[in-house]
């Protein structure tokens, strides 16, 4: 039902004005002093390891920066090379080294985190950059074009660095470029990006380290006298790692683990593996590191590729192992000490793709029929589904859902702690890649109920964080999973919820198709109050789509039909909501007196039912309608109360919207200076949120 829908603005703004770069200055916009802007972004992880050589590559980048001509757009440096060769580390090192030259910040996006079936939804990547630039999620434009304009506005004239990791095509990179020829973009890719046409691009090939550099890196990674005392063995080990920093890291930790053995003996053992099993020495190094692990850490290493998201955390590791938090933490620390995981502080751990492949091979050797992996996968999906359902219940309260909250996956495996609604919403956003990945994983392995049930809490997350590619992908799978499970309520609900992101992206026909299927299926529902409530919700979604496309007559008919059903089942809130929607629709089509009639009813019902948010929303719309018919004295207290409600909810977008209405109302009442105070406050809030100003705000 629409109690779960966002209270969005009518008529979203395009590009007009944006606050410029910050330092210790205050922004002044139309004579209004602005609050200090957000901190300069720096999105790179800390430099935890020694960076060795790459002098030639760095010199070439420096020359390209010096030679970059103004007026040609940002400089794009494409670092190309095989996996594990150190492209990302080089990009990070260059970005850190140049922070003084690019004082407006460093942004980072890993396109593989956003890749689905080989392709990236670039609008979501642009959204990632905008949030990194301080844009609040509620201010993100819906469309790709709108987000691109926001990016251009926020990066115009900036001196900043953007690191784009794991690009496969130039077309994935071009829309992410800052609108400033004083910015630097560092792109990593395994192959040449031939379709980066029209940009000032320089390709820098990153080859494996030369032998001397590989030896130096190894000696920096491991403070061990054997490396200097047995130079021949050290060279053989470095050579065997193929000049790949990812392999040298593991080799160094493996050497350190066996301090009592001579280095020659250790390398001889690897060579024996090489000749005996016919595997490269890199693989032998990883096998040796894996063989040195305790049973718990080795099992976790084999299971980590099952994680659906890029981040590895103690809680999700505990779910994989069905163990307590301390055991999982110990296993993760052991893997990091062995060089098999990359620790990133509060951001958890990550596993290099080369090591992920090795872990999968280890898993197939130990568990050829995938029994261990299947059990871990089942526990992981259930754990994520349980945490998401708990977070959703806390964040959104009881609402129309059809899946129960699963039981704990094990006596020792802990739940996430959610002190309150804010923490629950924050967790949903921080885990979104894992949660959307879990939907995909559950769908692919045939766990249909888990697939559609995981979508239910993702609906709450989507309303505040419009990651369109993820949500459309997830709800499509949820709908198909519900079809396969032959569970009619979920079949209907998934299609209704899929329709909304479709129509918000302007795909009205696709949304209408989903709702036609949902409405047809809803005719097969029974006559229980719950089934009739679902039918009313489906009709309401149809009305919302018609309202979105300007079909006011059709929208009114649907809202009236839904209201009748809610009256018949004595659902007071449903009646209230449809009455509010009827009033809002009448207001949007210019029937002001009709709107007042509906909105007065909705407002009175909201007050009676103690629905604070709906009281605020209905009061605001009623105040607008009263202003438009000249009943100013009645309008003012309603709009003022709506402002208090928006501030109590912490919704900056609603607050700006109400302030703009208050400005109009105050102007009509003959107080232009008071109106300007409201507009100035709205401008300040928009600037603080990183949004774009509308024409009325900027004038």
CATH fold-level assignment of the domain at 1-29 and 571-699: Serine Threonine Protein Phosphatase 5, Tetratricopeptide repeat
Give the DSSP E fraction (strand runs of 2 or more residues): 5-15%
Distance separating the two termini? 38 Å
Question: Which CATH first-tier class of the domain at 1-29 and 571-699 would you pick?
Answer: Mainly Alpha
Side by side, the strands of the main sheet go 4-7-8-3-9
Residue-averaged pLDDT: 87
Overall 3D geometry? globular
How does this model look, in words?
The structure is a single chain. The protein is mainly alpha-helical and 699 residues long. Among the domains are: 1-29 and 571-699, Alpha Horseshoe (Serine Threonine Protein Phosphatase 5, Tetratricopeptide repeat); 55-205, P-loop containing nucleotide triphosphate hydrolases (Rossmann fold, 3-Layer(aba) Sandwich), CATH 3.40.50.300; 211-291, Helicase, Ruva Protein, domain 3 (Orthogonal Bundle). It is 60% helix and 6% strand. The chain has 31 helices and eleven strands. Strands 4-7-8-3-9 form a five-stranded parallel β-sheet, with helices on both faces. It has a two-stranded antiparallel sheet with strand order 1-2. Strands 5-6 form a two-stranded antiparallel ribbon. α10 packs across α11 (281-291) and α29 (652-668) packs antiparallel against α30. The protein is globular. The model is unreliable at 1-36 and 695-699 (pLDDT under 50).
